[in-house]
Amino acid sequence: MIGFIGLGIMGSRMAANLLEEGYDVMVHNRSKEKAEPLLEKGAQWAETPKELAAQVDILYTMLANPQAVEAVAMGENGFLDAMGADSLWVDCSTVHPAFSRLMADEATKRKIRFMDAPVAGSKIPAERGELVFLVGGSERDVEQARPHMNAMGKAIQHQGGHGMGTSMKLVINLMLSETMAAFSEAVSLGEGLGLDKEKVVGTLLNGPTTAPFLEGKKEKILQNDFSPEFPLEHMQKDLQMVSQSAFEAGVSLPLAHAAKETYGLAKQFGYSKDDFSAIYHFLSTKK
Amino acid sequence: MIGFIGLGIMGSRMAANLLEEGYDVMVHNRSKEKAEPLLEKGAQWAETPKELAAQVDILYTMLANPQAVEAVAMGENGFLDAMGADSLWVDCSTVHPAFSRLMADEATKRKIRFMDAPVAGSKIPAERGELVFLVGGSERDVEQARPHMNAMGKAIQHQGGHGMGTSMKLVINLMLSETMAAFSEAVSLGEGLGLDKEKVVGTLLNGPTTAPFLEGKKEKILQNDFSPEFPLEHMQKDLQMVSQSAFEAGVSLPLAHAAKETYGLAKQFGYSKDDFSAIYHFLSTKK
Amino acid sequence: MIGFIGLGIMGSRMAANLLEEGYDVMVHNRSKEKAEPLLEKGAQWAETPKELAAQVDILYTMLANPQAVEAVAMGENGFLDAMGADSLWVDCSTVHPAFSRLMADEATKRKIRFMDAPVAGSKIPAERGELVFLVGGSERDVEQARPHMNAMGKAIQHQGGHGMGTSMKLVINLMLSETMAAFSEAVSLGEGLGLDKEKVVGTLLNGPTTAPFLEGKKEKILQNDFSPEFPLEHMQKDLQMVSQSAFEAGVSLPLAHAAKETYGLAKQFGYSKDDFSAIYHFLSTKK
Amino acid sequence: MIGFIGLGIMGSRMAANLLEEGYDVMVHNRSKEKAEPLLEKGAQWAETPKELAAQVDILYTMLANPQAVEAVAMGENGFLDAMGADSLWVDCSTVHPAFSRLMADEATKRKIRFMDAPVAGSKIPAERGELVFLVGGSERDVEQARPHMNAMGKAIQHQGGHGMGTSMKLVINLMLSETMAAFSEAVSLGEGLGLDKEKVVGTLLNGPTTAPFLEGKKEKILQNDFSPEFPLEHMQKDLQMVSQSAFEAGVSLPLAHAAKETYGLAKQFGYSKDDFSAIYHFLSTKK
């Protein structure tokens, strides 16, 4: 039996793909409501993380931040003390490397194996089983999880030991956040200089200076419709983890911090729940 | 007869493509030395911009910055007062929109037509005739220059009236400079977190968060060899023009300015003449 | 006869102090309305800068920016061609050093003497005759203007040749703008951490980390009343001149540019006409 | 008996003032060497924090960062489990508010009282007993510690409950770090524009735009001698705590982060152990 805790935008789609592939899956989520569609498809329900832990050999978690992971793992009715010896915990949450290593230590103390396996890709790739897993852990653990990850994703990139999957995830989200902000500045500048917005967006997307993922943000920017795929407040939170990890590594990131504070100001002006591409709307405001 | 003034890295390759296509070309450059390879291929030489102006119907300029353009156009022995009525000046230099419009006014006063036509693409595309022309001017002017631009480039994007080609060029260079800096921060962070440099570069280049042009910077970053295609000091100069134009347009660009000052610090630490990807080397310095 | 052109917040108060000291003053301003109080006190009116120029030996200008200075000096009915040989033009406007030197050159060509003499101090010091003059020019010119500057100010600091007064003025406004922004961030952080706003402001103002001028911003910040002494948009404009001058000098200023873009965003959100201390209000917004 | 743990630049001077005032003091430090001068003046030595805890009613700690505090309090041979019921722990270290509150909770669980009391002032004020204590805790705790704090400082500012002393300390260090960087940029700009360095420094220090503490940095900047009073790497570490606390409070600080990354770059270029005013030297480098 596979366990899955955390059924938000990402987790619900990932667990659905496991079910579809024919796996037995037991799920838990803070609010049971979000589990209902999965239960209808045959998933089993556990009332608490602890209860779930006792019945699975491998457990996936997909949660919002380190605090949420820690609470579910080690808080009241947490799963960590209830997992069987030599079972495997795969944390797919976006956290920071020091936290992944801390969780690895806590697991190891209890003779449980641990792997950090955050994913690249958001809502649509999660739905289509096209995520990319960025993995930190041992070869043995990767092999055990490989069939499940193949059900949920299209690629598995083994980056190294504990924390290395998480490290690569932060690198990617750094790139994502800065590139989104750069594109927003470029379009905003173009409009300010009198260019046609659609022309600017088109010229940039067709040229070599613009990352492919921005094609997916095109309509949001042209229509000023920022319904969330990846909420702005999550991106800003990830940048804070980048900041902390970069500090610990002795690496300076001037643009990442300019981006972080700009997303932060956007949050203060009400864009928290919008897609992170709403940074464009914040930057091009004229009152 | 076509005139061409400014035979640097870009201009020499552009003029060579005109010659190859069979056009009669008269050239001028501050130092005659750089013109020699073109003269051997059949180009004619003019001692001064003024002398050249009297003998051509259409004149292309490709110079380092607004000051250089102004000097060649309106300084001693400048071409502008010597051009024939209804002749066409096409300025391919990277300048700022207000300057392009100023030149358009100066030309118009003298009954000369003007078009701003800066290019996207650096050394290699210039050589291969694969530049993209970003054009600001009238339909008639675009049509007259079209065959020449086709000889030097692979696409012509007409953005609007005077200054609009230049505007789009600044938008593209903004994107280029920020994306290069973002990539440098991402690789630097990855290394700081203990990831393998080659793995980080590879993972990013194969993912959707990374602009295609960075493939061309891969070896520079992996080998720490920053021989210039687009010198860092030119990128920083372009960012200063972005800054001035954005100010005039009432547009704030927090990341662009963080980038500008980071390139500026790199300049202070000796990277002026290196390729602008040397920003990676500056950012990842550990003494 | 002394000439005075530019009767805004600063200029009107400066000219009034000259009158009070018993000098004959001839004034001009774009709108005559603002001159009325001075005319009542005995000033004479000139319809144009040109008309004024013919009747004075020394001419003071106090205008909003380089463009305004250039228009009044060299535009239609400008004063520069009408000034008598060996007369003295003292420009008190806040401009950038390259512009001051350009004006010095234009004056010298016409056998007119030039001095840049921008002032430190805003509305209240202007009223009380307590400005500090930052002067770039020759000893002889300083001596001729000294009695007037003493009537309008409390100190004269001769910084060097043409452009050096303006250079020091930019240095001071850089300091002013960053310190105001730093104080705003500090108060905003304190409030965010749950400290009492008045306590934070008091503790900072009584400690060694806080510049004396901030005492004068205390009530604005405590009362959230940002009636202008020095409008935010002027500060942002000065920072753009700082940016351009620093670029020309090869000096990188990461905080100054972060400040410039933050004031710029505040402008976009409607704070242009408020005092520049309104940057606090922008930064502490929570929607 | 008073306990004192942490005898670095600050702690050694603070403990010396307690001894001078006639108090019985028992000290501990990671390396005993640094305790020798105090032992000669009559202080007693404890081999471990735990051993010390059992013999004092009130315990002061002055350590480098949260990790050091946590290790000494709760690591092997930590003091927290060994302190008597109702005894008082006063933490003078610069940490972040969430950490102070965490320590308060850990203390409270063990029926020990806690007060955060970081200080404003560095080496010289510590020596002269002129520190300012920024205090978070109960009235009763403040009263018990008041005589000691009076021996070590000149003022006690009670900011509120647990964490509020620490909060104010971060606010002050934010102000300090940005103001130092702003001054460095101003001097660097002045020199770049051709002004005399001494004149720039003098003009700024005599004007209202410059914080009093900068008088104490004057000679360092004029002589390019950056022997440490407050090491640059500590300031950068404090800015990281500011960053984390501001994030938790939902407050954006664009300049503070530009400062943090600039200090960070200076660290990468070898200025870690210099005084934090060495940011001037980094910024004005020209290679």
TrEMBL record, chains A, B, C, D:
Coiled coil: none annotated. Residues 2-158 form the 6-phosphogluconate dehydrogenase NADP-binding domain. The active site is at residue 169. Residues 163-282 form the 3-hydroxyisobutyrate dehydrogenase-like NAD-binding domain. Transmembrane segments: none annotated. GO terms for biological process: organic acid catabolic process. Keywords: NAD, Oxidoreductase. Pfam families: NAD_binding_11, NAD_binding_2. GO terms for molecular function: NAD binding; NADP binding; oxidoreductase activity. InterPro entries: 3-OH-isobutyrate_DH-rel_CS, 6-PGluconate_DH-like_C_sf, 6PGD_dom2, 6PGDH_NADP-bd, HIBADH-like_NADP-bd, HIBADH-related, HIBADH-related_NP60_sf, NAD(P)-bd_dom_sf. Belongs to the HIBADH-related family. This is NAD(P)-dependent oxidoreductase. It comes from Falsibacillus albus.
